[in-house]
Amino acid sequence: MGLAALAIAALGLCLASTAAAGNTTKVLTGHINPDQVYSFVYVPFDVPVGTQSIYVYQNYSLKGQGNACDLGVFDPRGHEDPQGVGFRGWSGGYRNNFTITEAWATPGYIAGAVYPGTWNVVLGPYTSVPSGIDYELTVTLSTDPVPGGYFAPNFSSSRVGPDPAPAEKWYRGDFHVHTYYSDGDHAPSFIVDMAKNQSLDFFYSTDHNTQASNLIWGEADPADLFVGRGIEVTTRSGHWGALGLDRWQWIDFRPQANTPGVDLAFANVREAGGFVSINHPYISCPACNWTLSDFVDADGIEVWNGPFDGPSNQTIAKWQELLVAGNRVTALGGSDYHRAPRLVGQPTTVVRTSALTDAGIMDALRRQRVYIVEGPGMEIDFTVTAASGQVTEVGDVVAGSGAFTAEVKVTGMNGGILTLIGPKGPIFQQKITTSPATVTHKKIEGDFVRVEIRDAAGSMLGLTNPIYFHQVQKS
Ligand SMILES: *[C@@H]1O[C@H](CO)[C@@H](O)[C@H](O)[C@H]1NC(C)=O
Ligand SMILES: *[C@@H]1O[C@H](CO)[C@@H](O)[C@H](O)[C@H]1NC(C)=O
Ligand SMILES: *[C@@H]1O[C@H](CO)[C@@H](O)[C@H](O)[C@H]1NC(C)=O
Ligand SMILES: *[C@@H]1O[C@H](CO)[C@@H](O)[C@H](O)[C@H]1NC(C)=O
Ligand SMILES: *[C@@H]1O[C@H](CO)[C@@H](O)[C@H](O)[C@H]1NC(C)=O
Ligand SMILES: *[C@@H]1O[C@H](CO)[C@@H](O)[C@H](O)[C@H]1NC(C)=O
Ligand SMILES: *[C@@H]1O[C@H](CO)[C@@H](O)[C@H](O)[C@H]1NC(C)=O
């Protein structure tokens, strides 16, 4: 071996030991009892000054064999603040490791300052065998410099279409979509592609318990598609859609059912101008059915989740019950898209507003100017016309006087059975035999009337929010 080769070998050794010196690894272990399922367990670790990256690897006993344990992290700003100042990411049960640096982070985690101090891994035991969960967290801290500049968010456009918008019109969207920033399989660009294929004008990004994807939609949103900020707040007592969030906003998923923390989380969404929607209240998975609050505490209900099924049918029955009791809760739909065979925009929720902006869409939701159809090419134009000639559209209180006539123009639902429904149930039914088709009916009674169109087997093709016959009685 010549002198030069020796020098290179020595240099190589030296570099390797420098790199190794830049990393420290600690293994944190512990035990979670079965009675801690549905609570959250914090595991602290210290991050010294000069740390450039944090890598955490999670392992636990009987994973997938009776035990399931979610994963997330809070930085030294704390884990108690309900606004989530210290929140740095969540991946539920979808990932077993994450990295956070100034420049980038694992999807679902928030890149940026690697603050020195005490960080906390948050573990969310979800199911447990009787002997509990033994966990092991391997934390590697590195002082190696990380390439790339400081993370900069790229938010989606806040308005799509001309400003001011020419007139009110119906816009097609989806209020429940996941990406690989939580447990979906796909990148934002793929979701955008599918939304365009499905003729959508907008959708809301609703990854589980993290705002991470809301920070980057500007990298993928085309000029003619509005992408709204949302989170599917995945609690231990059901899931809800926090829709219309501010930039960076996070919503606390940890409050237990019927506690002030739940009210505060709802209030935080509304303060941002957003909307609280109960998601799929009757689906059957552990901790999925809705017991977090009273149904009437929410602004809306996802009455149709993905391809129409029994739980959605049950939700519609619940919604009818709420309407009959005088609770004007908005019905909306969501594909809950994670991967095939679901489709973004199945169902499609159509809203009437003057502008494709967050404020415009949220206003339409609050005013119930909303109907839902199974997918592209389907439309429902439902109005009530007074003898005096005034026309009222979905979500509104009838204007005018004299006898009222309901009129429904339906496109793309040939073969469906249209039902007009009032507080006492069906008031009129007619088979749709053409597309488009127009159905009219003159005898309407009760406080509201709404439309459902189902196929012969009872599967939903489309439904509208009601038209009302009285103002809400405010006490
Ligand atoms: C140190 O940690 C960083 C970040 O996790 C990693 O990329 C690098 O390979 C590690 N270096 C060594 C020598 O293990
Ligand atoms: C994960 O933990 C289990 C037991 O708790 C152990 O058998 C397994 O080897 C661990 N896997 C890794 C990759 O550390
Ligand atoms: C870390 O997570 C990624 C997915 O985010 C996965 O592909 C990889 O296999 C995981 N690493 C280990 C060691 O399990
Ligand atoms: C969108 O449609 C195009 C053309 O049919 C197709 O090639 C593409 O795969 C579709 N994208 C998605 C995400 O479904
Ligand atoms: C956001 O990403 C798009 C697409 O990559 C890019 O054209 C645009 O300049 C980015 N905007 C910001 C503010 O970084
Ligand atoms: C919620 O679902 C669980 C099963 O997952 C069931 O035992 C429980 O009775 C349900 N509660 C309500 C209020 O529907
Ligand atoms: C939907 O629920 C109603 C009761 O609310 C029931 O009569 C009907 O059979 C159900 N239809 C389907 C398709 O599940």
Can you describe what's shown?
- It comes from Lyophyllum shimeji.
- The chain is mainly beta.
- The chain folds into three domains: 3-142, Jelly Rolls (Sandwich); 153-376, Metal-dependent hydrolases (TIM Barrel); 377-475, Coagulation Factor XIII, Chain A, domain 1, CATH 2.70.50.60.
- The protein is built from five helices and 28 strands.
- The chain has helices spanning 3-21, 188-197, 260-271, 310-324, 358-366, and strands spanning 23-32, 41-47, 53-60, 68-74, 87-92, 97-101, 117-127, 133-142, 159-160, 169-177, 202-208, 226-235, 238-243, 275-279, 300-305, 330-334, 348-353, 356-357, 370-373, 379-386, 391-393, 404-411, 417-422, 425-431, 437-441, 448-454, 460-464, 467-468.
- The strands form five sheets. Strands 10, 11, 12, 13, 14, 15, 16, 17, 19, 23, 24, 26, 27 and 28 form a 14-stranded mixed beta sheet that branches.
- It is elongated, with a radius of gyration of 26 Å.
- The N and C termini lie far apart (94 Å).
- Mean pLDDT is 94; it is low at 1-20.
- The structure holds 2-acetamido-2-deoxy-beta-D-glucopyranose (7 copies).
